[in-house]
Specification:
- The chain is α+β, with helices and mostly antiparallel strands.
- The protein is built from 9 helices and 24 strands.
- It folds into 2 domains: 124 residues, Creatine Amidinohydrolase, Chain A, domain 1 (3-Layer(aba) Sandwich); 245 residues, Creatinase/methionine aminopeptidase superfamily (Creatine Amidinohydrolase).
- The radius of gyration is 24 Å and the shape is elongated.
- The two termini are 42 Å apart.
- The relative contact order is 0.11.
């Protein structure tokens, strides 16, 4: 995994598990399930590791120094600290480096921050992006994301293959003599991703009105003639970068109402792609995308206590986190050259259907390079 050579903050402290904290993973290049301490002072980086991980960290972590947690705790006890904790360890290393103040991410544990302050260390939280470099992908990072996107496409095809083989009977889809369910299609997708060294968790296969709740994973029997939203977002088990991909299909013949939704989303999707370039505000991209739906007569708002229309953002950054900056929505951020973002407008009308189309793109100076190749097809015979 590639990281920036020059991180902006003079003295920083992180504490978290790389498995769930992308800032720690980005800073160290070391993947582990348990939290550990990271410090960077005047360009020199240090991790403090337990006996469980210290040997592996010495060979795998992209840092200047690996310190033993066990030995450091013993040193603190020898100096009279009865029950030393992580804050004591950090304060000791900072004193040795003659540092009195640090910056931390907004997600830094509050208890440890308070304990550091009690030990006369100034702690300044910083809003995301803590590492602004993360919003601009290097060539290596872009290739890693592209590789995962190819896995997402193959996994989606594995799910679509089941739908192609299925046949309609008594209002349901059947395959191999049994009703075809969201769960079976999702399993085929996730197994395919795993076969290519990726983990696809919480894959969405949502039929009919289930798709009108954009993050509903979907469950139960699938039906002919209804929209089926399939959203695949695997993560590589080698590089830990994500891909993201959504297609909407109908097994059989789509109604005129569904065709209208699909046409509108396709046009909004093209507008989103055409609106993105380096330096543009994500809010402006979202405004242009949403305007397509208004122009075509697809309003957004609450009806019978439930939102319908286009009520989520147009997209988001993708990298070591599935959802990261820059934002492409009602509250946007500047989209820099080198960002990787999704373009995923959708329409959701209970009783009619749900359509979302999502591509992943690399942002260039005058436009985007689409990292997604799989075709957009509404009807599956």
């Amino acid at each position: 995994m590639t990281r920036s050579k020059a991180m902006s903050n003079d003295a920083i402290v992180l504490y978290g598990a790389p498995e769930v904290d992308a800032n720690v993973l980005y800073a160290t290049g070391f993947h582990a399930p348990d939290p550990f301490l990271f410090l960077r002072v005047r360009g020199k980086s240090t991790v403090v590791m337990s006996d469980l991980e210290i040997d592996r960290a010495r060979t795998e972590a992209a840092v200047d120094r690996v310190v033993s947690l066990t030995k450091t705790l013993a040193t603190l006890r020898d100096r009279g600290v009865r029950e030393p904790g992580i804050a004591d360890v950090a304060a000791l290393l900072l004193r040795e480096a003659r540092v009195r103040g640090v910056t931390v991410p907004s997600t830094f544990p509050v208890l440890i921050a308070d304990e550091l302050r009690a030990r006369r260390v100034r702690v300044e939280p910083v809003r995301e992006p803590f590492f602004p470099e993360r919003t601009r992908k290097t060539a290596d990072e872009a290739r890693s994301i592209l590789d995962v996107q190819r896995v997402a496409e193959r996994a989606l095809e594995a799910g679509l293959a089941l739908l192609r083989r299925a046949s309609a009977r008594r209002g349901y889809l059947y395959l191999d003599g049994v009703v075809l369910t969201s769960e079976r299609v999702r399993r085929a997708i996730e197994v395919s991703a795993l076969e290519h060294e990726c983990v696809a968790m919480n894959t969405i296969v949502a039929g009919g009105d289930q798709g009108c709740d954009p993050h509903n994973r979907g469950s139960g029997p699938l039906r002919p003639g209804e929209t089926i939203i399939i959203d695949v977002f695997p993560r590589s088990t080698r590089t830990f970068y994500f891909g993201d991909l959504t297609r909407t299909v109908v097994k059989g013949v789509a109604s005129d109402a569904i065709r209208g939704l699909y046409h509108a989303v396709s046009e909004a999707h093209r507008t989103g792609l055409e609106s993105i370039r380096a330096g543009v505000d994500g809010k402006d991209v979202h405004t242009a995308t949403a305007a397509v739906f208004e122009r075509l007569g697809y309003p957004t708002g609450a009806k019978a206590g439930r939102m319908e229309g286009f009520f989520h953002g147009t997209g988001h950054g993708v990298g070591l986190d599935l959802h990261e900056l820059p934002r492409v929505g009602r509250v946007g951020t500047e989209i820099p050259e080198g960002a990787v973002v999704t373009v995923e407008p959708g329409l959701y009308y209970p009783g009619v259907g749900a359509v979302r189309i999502e591509d992943l793109v690399f942002v260039e100076k005058r436009g985007v390079r689409n990292l997604t190749r799989i075709p957009k097809i509404l009807e599956i015979g």
